Amino acid sequence: MMGIRIFLILAAVLLVAVFLEIYRETHSFRVTRYTVNSGKMKGFGDEIRILFFSDLHNMEYGKHNERLFRAAARENPDLILIGGDMLVGKPDVSYDPALKFVQRLTELCPVFYANGNHEQRMKEEPWKYSFSYESYREQLIRKGTVFLENESREITIRGKKLVVSGLELPLVSYVKFRKDRISGSTVSESLGFTPPQQNPDREAYYILLAHNPTYMDAYKEWGADLILSGHLHGGIARIPGIGGVITPQVFLFPKYSGEMTVEGDRTIIVSKGLGTHTVNIRFMNMPELVSVRIHG
């Protein structure tokens, strides 16, 4: 009887500890810093500082996201890249928290924005969302945000040319229990842009914003130097040495879920994201703002 009582007490303590950890992880964030080395940066004599935001889902860290903004400002970025899902794509949910925060980010440096599935559903089904996507987009553009909707944009930072492409996948590419057939040529056709390895400008540094890492093989085939993704929220829970547990499309143990991976000349960074929606759980999976330093 005493053994059962001790077991129940320990189980209760463990359960409380788990709930407290989930609460902590859904109400705080950290800055994850990665250093990327590239032969294209040799002789540059400096570093390029990029902040990558993904999957905020209207989360607010302090009033008007003051804590998150201050963390971003401390990184002194040259460029801010957004990988989508800054808002929550539901008819009864305001996009105002995301709007005000992204507008403020333009005070720090240029901001490039590629859509995730939440923006995409608002865009593809405008009648369902009272045509709010166009309003959201136009208000951000007026404040200086550059939207990359299957588009590419060049930017020169202290004499170094970067080419940033934003891949926009249709909603069908996010359906549960399904994986579309997407190849590098699909990426080229969507972007209307020559794969980097075939581009005559070999010295430019190519970055691809592609929200869903499920199709990473296609992104790698296309050939960007740096691929930035999110969407998976780190796999909801993470197991040390293994990674994320489950994806929104209900695939288990995804290969890329919240880390930096170097494969040949390609660097892949998947953000664990900054917020949650629907399943408001994180365990051993702290939300993160990703800070990237690119060196030679």
TrEMBL record:
Name of one Pfam family that matches: Metallophos
Residues of the signal peptide: none
Domain annotation Calcineurin-like phosphoesterase: ranges: 48-234
Origin species: Candidatus Mediterraneibacter stercoravium
Protein name: Metallophosphoesterase
InterPro entries: Calcineurin-like_PHP, Metallo-depent_PP-like, Metallophosphoesterase_sf
Keyword Lyase on entry: no
Taxonomic superkingdom: Bacteria
PANTHER family recorded: PHOSPHODIESTERASE YAEI, TRANSMEMBRANE PROTEIN WITH METALLOPHOSPHOESTERASE DOMAIN-RELATED
BP GO terms, sorted: lipid A biosynthetic process
Gene Ontology CC: one annotated term: membrane
Keywords: Hydrolase, Metal-binding
Molecular function terms from GO: metal ion binding; UDP-2,3-diacylglucosamine hydrolase activity
